């Protein structure tokens, strides 16, 4: 009806707030989840975002953006260490967020937060806004977090050098070295961060995990028993569920020129090499990787991002390297990774085993060489090798001969071919969970119904 004729107005659109942790591996899954909620449930989305690693609202015209002062001091921002940023944000976000939420007049149904943002959850509770946690790591990783107090009581942590290969029977197939650990922060600080994650999860109205039922069935079942929450949904891989392009939230410029180069390479011949957005190596290791790749004789696409070598803002390639790889290798600063992994020329992925990279590889049936560095990467690599059989770990000192052997093992040998076959089986399981009655679609439906019920 027209104005004043008493006709019924459509019900106001429900609004969901999302607050990602401002790091690449956390922003992407949150923006994909927001995209899925927007497309599926017709939900309006407000993204709360920080100045630190700020997103570009112009790239997401369908969302509303509200800046929240993050309280991250300039020196911490410049260093960009994830734990320091988490601690700074949690210490500072309270008043800033309270006023941002007060300005947000949409009467939001709920707030979806990264599990690292306990302080944000506290503000939401004060104003009666329900929170749902998005876990951007695996279900196994969340189990490890919840087990952290037990792991200390039983003496697995802090880990001793002599016990690194000891199994942790409470969390099969993990060994002590696979537990969530970091070298860049003190153990006490890490324990504090994990305790807060656990509190955030336990205080939430429900948890969404970026995984899928067929990938981690036992871990999800145990988590559901261990956490008494209204819902615990496996709604991944989120980048596959969402129709949004990742470029919208990439913090670095993705060099699309590599796709033209991949087009010229034989099917399954190229090794894609990337160590994610945070991992760093020393200059000696960098040299070994460079010459190991050259000596492997395989075509490769290598992501050398700024700061890949510790304390180097722009990384110089070794002398003679560019001549040695002419036509056979390509080095870029940042890749459109999902497109690369989906390219028919790519036959293997040498990865740092970040959870997003792992899921993206699994989603395209690409087997992996794993070079985990810290946090959840060790356990991701353990599952890749030991549970799914779609890759293996390159362990110990980085040395060009070992690298060459690893590339041969993955790309040329029978063992690598078997990993590729298993990766293809897993890829089909991803496709199944994404079908209209697939487990991840059902999880999204449940999440949307929950939001609409609020
Ligand atoms: C970090 C930790 O490494 C990871 O284990 C944890 O789960 C999340 O935080 P990150 O190092 O960023 O994540 O790795 P990962 O989780 O693999 O995410 C990297 C993302 O950057 C992926 O989505 C990948 O597609 C993207 N990427 C990577 C690019 O777009 N281009 C590149 O060249 C490399």
UniProtKB/TrEMBL annotation:
<dbReference type="GO" id="GO:0047254">
    <property type="term" value="F:2,4-dihydroxy-7-methoxy-2H-1,4-benzoxazin-3(4H)-one 2-D-glucosyltransferase activity"/>
</dbReference>
<comment type="similarity">
    <text>Belongs to the UDP-glycosyltransferase family.</text>
</comment>
<keyword id="KW-0808">Transferase</keyword>
<dbReference type="InterPro" id="IPR002213">
    <property type="entry name" value="UDP_glucos_trans"/>
</dbReference>
<keyword id="KW-0328">Glycosyltransferase</keyword>
<comment type="function">
    <text>Glucosyltransferase involved in the last step of benzoxazinoid glucoside biosynthesis. Catalyzes the glucosylation of hydroxamic acids utilizing UDP-glucose as glucose doner, reducing the toxicity of these natural insecticides for storage. Can use DIMBOA and DIBOA as substrates, HMBOA (2-hydroxy-7-methoxy-2H-1,4-benzoxazin-3(4H)-one) and HBOA (2-hydroxy-2H-1,4-benzoxazin-3(4H)-one) with a lower efficiency, but not indole acetic acid or quercitin.</text>
</comment>
<dbReference type="Pfam" id="PF00201">
    <property type="entry name" value="UDPGT"/>
</dbReference>
<protein>
    <recommendedName>
        <fullName>2,4-dihydroxy-7-methoxy-2H-1,4-benzoxazin-3(4H)-one 2-D-glucosyltransferase</fullName>
        <ecNumber>2.4.1.202</ecNumber>
    </recommendedName>
</protein>
